[in-house]
Design brief:
Layout (H helix, E strand, L loop, with lengths): L3 E8 L6 H9 L5 E5 L2 E5 L3 H13 L3 E8 H11 L3 E3 L2 E4 L10 E3 L12 H10 L8 E5 L5 H8 L4 E6 L2 H12 L7 E5 L10 E7 L2 H6 L1 H6 L1 E13 L3 H8 L3 E7 L2 E8 L1
Parallel strand pairs: 6-7, 8-9, 8-11, 9-10, 11-12
Antiparallel strand pairs: 1-3, 1-4, 2-3, 5-6, 12-14, 13-14
């Protein structure tokens, strides 16, 4: 049965207001954000979260339209318009290449966040390629579509585990793994970052939100085997100072695309 997702269209969002809208939405834990010609579409786990976000943005003067979107329609529409994406050695496509090389992977659009078309996913893919993954264990927190865990495997990780609190995201990630049968071992598990004891890994990647990264900093740091690396993204430039303080002191490499930031934190 096709799932209907509660969604909210925020209409006519200017470039100057994008950060403000994203920060307001973050308080209501959207499962995905979709950039659209007319503004931003946010998807939520429950109608209650969507309606609360709608009320808050309306009070702030934004024009919003609550809607229901079927997962099947959303994925089909997205897949039709998504070209392949290449980030350094990695190429992501929604359809298999005629010849599959070791650095190509297939990711089908779904409500599980991550197709390579959002800046934070690209930033994390670039960061993974700057860390030595050969023979390492990798933990992908908030795996979404599974793209980062699968990419870690093809980059040489001995094992990659993707965690997500959303059962639909875990299903999406598992389906994407099946589209890349030459990749492994990769495992996907339904688990909540805030209530689960995370497996200690050589490299931990967390593409979440700025607010969640701040709240979960101690948990994420404890999941990194020393010496290791922690890659965090999903934060806006305006959130960078707070996130940096939460993970300080650390040796940090910074990347940025548009208003989005990715930090690679070396855990000594």
């Amino acid at each position: 049965m096709t799932r209907e997702w509660p969604a909210l269209d925020v209409i006519n969002v200017s470039v100057g207001n994008y950060d403000s809208v994203a920060l307001l939405l973050d308080d209501f834990h959207p499962t995905a954000l979709e950039d659209r010609d007319t503004g931003i579409r946010a998807f939520f786990e429950t109608s209650a979260s969507r309606d609360a976000a709608s009320a808050t943005l309306t009070r702030r003067g934004f024009i919003v339209a609550p809607i229901e979107v079927s997962d099947e329609d959303w994925a089909t529409r997205s897949q039709e318009s998504l070209p392949p994406v290449t980030v350094d050695r990695i190429t992501i496509t929604s359809e298999p290449w005629p010849s599959r090389d070791s650095f190509s992977l297939v990711i089908r659009p779904s409500m599980g966040f991550g197709t390579g078309h959002h800046p934070t996913t690209r930033l994390c893919l670039a960061a993974l390629q700057d860390v030595s993954l050969t023979g390492s264990s990798v933990l992908d927190v908030g795996t979404g579509s599974g793209i980062l865990a699968i990419a870690a495997s093809i980059l040489g990780a001995a094992e990659a585990i993707g965690l997500d609190a959303d059962a639909d995201a875990v299903q999406s990630a598992t389906e994407n793994l099946l589209l890349n049968p030459w990749v492994g071992p990769v495992h996907f598990v339904r688990a909540d970052l805030t209530t689960t004891s995370l497996p200690v890994s050589d490299v931990v990647v967390a593409n979440l939100t700025g607010a969640l990264l701040v709240r979960s900093a101690d948990i994420l740091k404890a999941a990194v085997r020393r010496p290791g690396a922690l890659i965090v993204s999903g934060l806006l430039e305006s959130e960078e100072e707070a996130v940096g303080q939460a993970f300080a002191p650390a040796d940090t490499l910074r990347r940025q695309e548009d208003e989005w930031v990715c930090l690679t934190i070396r855990m000594r």
